[in-house]
Design brief:
Radius of gyration: 21 Å
Shape: elongated
Number of strands: 2
Order of helices and strands: HEHHHHHE
Helix content: over 70%
Number of helices: 6
Distance between the termini: 34 Å
Oligomer: single chain
Largest sheet: 2 strands, antiparallel
Structural class: mainly alpha
């Protein structure tokens, strides 16, 4: 009985971690008048228009992952070197720390959705504003 519950919780966590950032629509007169279903349809339409116009939602995701992995490796190496120096082998500690930091950063970036590009965000924001909505941010 516990395994299905744990599996469901793990899947929910993984799905939420991988979901794309979405605009948060302020509940103004327009959004209240049309209802949540229409707000969601308009968000989807604006996202599609942005993609068709050339504003890619995940533009630069690969380079962002590479940079995150490199930063994690550098931080891990520095941390490992300090720990290794205390334990008596700074070089070994730096190697272990670099590998651990890079792996953790890479895995984290694979399970998290990069923020949409500024061009994509601006396009969607303007599209929604032209439809009468107000955005309070992205989540």
């Amino acid at each position: 009985m516990r395994k299905p519950l744990m599996l469901g919780a793990a899947l929910a966590l993984m799905t939420s971690a991988c979901s794309a950032p979405r605009p948060i629509v302020y509940p103004n007169a327009q959004s209240q008048r049309v209802g949540q279903a229409q707000v969601e349809a308009d968000i989807a339409a604006c996202r599609q228009l942005a993609e068709q116009a050339g504003a890619r939602e995940g533009a630069g995701a690969a380079s962002e992952r590479a940079a995150t992995t490199a930063r994690g490796g550098a931080i891990g190496a520095a941390t490992g070197a300090v720990g290794g120096a205390i334990a008596g082998d700074a070089m070994r500690g730096a190697g272990i720390g670099a590998a651990t930091g890079a792996t953790a950063s890479l895995l984290n970036s694979l399970f998290s959705q990069p923020a949409p590009s500024p061009a994509f965000r601006n396009f969607v924001k303007r599209c929604l504003r032209e439809r009468g909505y107000e955005l309070s941010g992205w989540d």
